[in-house]
Amino acid sequence: MTIGEGAYNSMAKKVLVVDDEKLIVKGIRFSLEQEGMQVDCAYDGQEALDMIKENTYDVILLDVMLPKFNGYEVCQQVREFSDVPIIMVTAKDDDMDKILGLEYGADDYITKPFNILEVKARIKAIMRRSSKKEEENKEATYGDLTIDCSSRRVYIEGNEVNLTAKEFDVLELLVFHPNKVYDRDALLDLVWGKDYPGDARTVDVHIRRLREKIEKNPSEPKYVHTKWGVGYYFEY
User: Fold this and answer.
1) What does the pLDDT look like over 81-117, one tens digit per residue?
2) How many C-beta neighbours within 10 Å does residue 3 have?
């Protein structure tokens, strides 16, 4: 057990597992409950949306292929009202499927068939990153942009902007280290963790989505800038 994992057992983190294959759900549920987590289960997209609206979860494990609404549609709708971390599960080992999941607001992905140990590791990693927030009372305002770390909210001209968990993490890192250029590998390590198997495209997708939400003109950003050939930085 790595440092900090015991804390998750005692904190009874709550996970929603969404998959129409009941045997898979049963196995995941049993394994996560052995780790001391509370686990709810949904077997189609509509049921998942209803449960997410009625409950608070620490992580959602969301299969792509679902009845009624597929995983991408569920993810997209959830992002309209929540930044809960979402791990997409796809049966295809295809980069485009993974990128599509990130486009719709997923924080991570895993490919079937998977090892249950990997599933647990991914869930714990997201919980660890979500819980390990330092200086949560930080707040900063630059022009019409305000970031409040205690509530994990961002405002443009006083209006709240709905960011995903990872979009917020990227912005928070850049804002509180202004003019410091982070290359893609550094951002992957700091925001997603060293154990994250993704590549630089993950960072690029999140930066682009972030700009679309906080910049009046994403092609000529005011806040999140590119140092060509190097990486990204915040400047106002």
Assistant:
1) 998 999 999 877 667 777 888 888 999 889 888 899 9
2) 7
What's the pTM value of the predicted model, to 2 decimals?
A: 0.62
Q: 């950003």: which residue's tokens? A: 221
Same domain as 122, residue 9:
yes
Residues 6+ apart with CB under 8 A from 27: 116
- Residues 9 and 109 grouped into a single domain: yes
The 3-class secondary structure across the chain, one letter per residue, is: CCCCHHHHHHHCCEEEEECCCHHHHHHHHHHHHHCCCEEEEECCHHHHHHHHHHCCCCEEEEECCCCCCCHHHHHHHHCCCCCCCEEEEECCCCHHHHHHHHHCCCCEEEECCCCHHHHHHHHHHHHHHHHCCCCCCCEEEECCEEEECCCCEEEECCEEECCCHHHHHHHHHHHCCCCCCECHHHHHHHHHCCCCCCCHHHHHHHHHHHHHHHCCCCCCCCCEEEECCCEEEECC
Instruction: Specify whether 89 is located in the same domain as 153.
Output: no
CA neighbours closer than 13 Å in the CB half-sphere of residue 214? 32
Strand 59-63 to 38-42 pairing: unpaired
164 with 81, same domain: the answer is no
Task: State the residue range of the domain holding 97.
Answer: 5-131
Residues 145, 180, single domain; the answer is: yes
Residues ≥6 apart with Cβ < 8 Å to 229: none
